[in-house]
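About this split. The held-out portion is used to measure sequence recovery: a designer receives only the structure tokens and must propose an amino acid at every position. Recovery is the fraction of positions where the proposal matches the reference. Here is one held-out target exactly as it appears in the evaluation file.
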């Protein structure tokens, strides 16, 4: 599952991966990249919360209008 991350400061690392992220840059990271970045520079990145995610509501609702 991909996670959205934001670089808090400039990051250059991962010699074998040749990674570069500018400060303020937001990007999608797969699980492998996420685990690598959290192990290599945990204070350099933060996870961005999804604003557009629907609310968790398990209740069934009636339709607003009949068709």
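Reference sequence for scoring:
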């Amino acid at each position: 599952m991909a996670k959205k991350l934001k670089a808090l400061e400039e990051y250059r690392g991962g010699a074998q991966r040749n990674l570069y992220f500018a400060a303020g840059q937001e990007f999608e990271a797969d699980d492998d990249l996420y685990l690598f970045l959290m192990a290599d520079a945990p204070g350099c990145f933060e996870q961005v919360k999804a604003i557009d995610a629907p609310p968790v509501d398990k209740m069934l609702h009636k339709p607003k209008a009949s068709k």
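Annotator remark: The first strand starts at residue 3 and ends at 7.
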